[in-house]
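Bench notes, afternoon.
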Amino acid sequence: MILARRDATERQKWVDIAEISIRTFGTVSDHSSWNWENKRLLIEAENHHLNGDLDDAKQKYLLSIGSAKKHKFVHEEGLGNELFSNFLAICGDVEGSRNHMVLARDCYAQW
């Protein structure tokens, strides 16, 4: 989704790929939620962010981070915090962005 935000000429290409991924991760998440749930939620968060659905994006980022933490995917918890930090910075929440980047760094250090 970062690529879709960077290059307007290829935005639809990346959106289409994300939508396929969301459907695929949704299907595998139904069979193995502990392994796929946080990934699906993170892609959904990024998709909401791209589409300007900021409240839905925030909710999905937080759910993704919580799922990764619950299932002990510390590196994916770090990724969720990092992407949420970027989202918060874009939304103007500098303090929240800083806090989540610190959490991301701590997750990566633990990993």
